[in-house]
Amino acid sequence: MPFIKNITSKNNEVFNNSILELVKSKNSTLFIKLCENADFIFPFLKEKIIKNFVKLINKEKLDNTFEFSKTYCADFEDLIVNSWLKFADEDLTDCILEIFDKGTDEQKTYAAKYFYYIKDPLALDYLKKEAFSNNEALRNNCAKTLKSFGDLECIEKMKKIASDKTKDDFEKFTAFSFISAYKDDDSINFILKEGKNSALKSAIYSNLLDNNSFDEIQKKASDDEIILLFSTIIEGYPEIIDLNTIEYYEIQKFIDHIIKIQSQYAKNSLIIAKNKFKEFINNDIYLYDLDKNLKSLLKDIFLYLDSLNLNVEEQSEEINCYNIPERYSLALDVIKEAKLKRCSETLASLINGQKLSLEQCAKTAQVLKELDCINLVDLTTIEKIENENIKALIKSLVQC
């Protein structure tokens, strides 16, 4: 791939010639190649490519960027948008409004970003319409631009959808995604509160970290909310959340903050994280496609967690916090991983005393089965469970 080799060359003449080749390109082939290799280009090089392209583009060649815009790439979004902004006038804005009306989702995503800078009120109707798009990049750009317009209509609608128990999980997730990108004063608190009971909690919280730094979250969230956010992200690795986000999500900052919290809940979150990172660094299946810097970061985080004095034994208080589901659930995870069999009688008593929710009851029974103590569960109690699926699950654990 000579084009990619040339556009990342340290030789300025070769680099500039490749930029000029891209500027003159009448189809999107070279731009697509650039986008396909974005993950392998250093951030400073991406900035250099964007800066030099915008510098060299002229009005005669600007039409080429409209062809490029049929391919969306977040890494090179500014290459197209900044080129448009360079020649922004009434005619160009009318052209981009037409894209917003009739273009592809990819083209509309660039258009939404353009109107973040060019406050044309004619764009508002298109922004409000595409705010509900299933295309995440388009939806998020609409959110950011609507925020810059000071529009409150869409954010209020999205919050109603996200907190509506009658809506399905996917529709609610798209609303949470919009709220996260919109970033009003209440967004972080709203997402942490309303998202914690969703079946898509990992994806919702991951999206929150896509748009908000640890420092921004720390200013808004309580310590327990930070622990829950951290634990949810750790639980999501690597099946739901890509390991490549560990540095961007500032996982080390979360750990440094949680270490200072004097609670077993905080320690439990770090215990689970330590075990998860140990699993990562000891299994090639997680490491084979990671770069050496990320592999090193995974190892450093594990060694740091392993050096801490994390007590797994004191779970009695956490077990009795069954009325706080996230604390109880994390305690169950620790009990299971540390094989704390001495906790089994207390756990069984919670099932037998019908003190747990159905979900808690099922997870507790599964932990007792892992501890080889499921026999402590009273069969007459199981018969009183109204949910047939949960009843069948626990019966199968007891009987097998």
How does this model look, in words?
The structure is a single chain. With 400 residues, this protein is mainly alpha-helical. Helices cover 68% and strands 0% of the residues. The protein is built from 26 helices and no strands. Helix 12 runs parallel beside helix 14 and helix 16 packs parallel to helix 18. The longest helix is centred in the C-terminal third of the chain and has 18 residues. It is elongated, with a radius of gyration of 26 Å. The N and C termini lie far apart (58 Å). The model has no long low-confidence stretch (mean pLDDT 93).
Which key terms come to mind for this protein?
400 residues, single chain, 26 helices, mainly alpha
Provide a quick synopsis of the model.
The protein has about 400 residues and is mainly alpha-helical.
Write the layout of secondary structure elements.
Blueprint lengths: L1 H6 L4 H13 L4 H8 L6 H14 L6 H6 L8 H10 L3 H13 L2 H13 L6 H7 L5 H14 L3 H10 L6 H14 L4 H9 L5 H11 L2 H7 L2 H14 L14 H9 L4 H18 L2 H4 L4 H15 L9 H4 L5 H14 L5 H9 L5 H13 L8 H5 L4 H12 L1
Helix pairs in contact: 2-4, 4-6, 6-8, 7-8, 8-10, 9-10, 10-12, 11-12, 12-13, 12-14, 13-14, 14-16, 16-17, 16-18, 18-20, 18-22, 22-24, 23-24, 24-26
The span between the termini is 58 Å
The fraction of residues assigned to DSSP E strands is under 5%
Which of globular, elongated, flat, extended, rod-shaped describes the shape?
Answer: elongated
Q: Determine the fraction of residues in helical runs and give it as a percent range.
A: 55-70%
Task: Give average pLDDT, whole number.
Answer: 93
Task: Supply the number of helical segments.
Answer: 26
- Regions with little confidence, pLDDT below 50 for 5+ residues: none
> Main sheet?
none
SSE class: mainly alpha
Give the number of DSSP strands: 0
| Radius of gyration, CA atoms, in whole angstroms | 26 Å
Order of helices and strands: HHHHHHHHHHHHHHHHHHHHHHHHHH
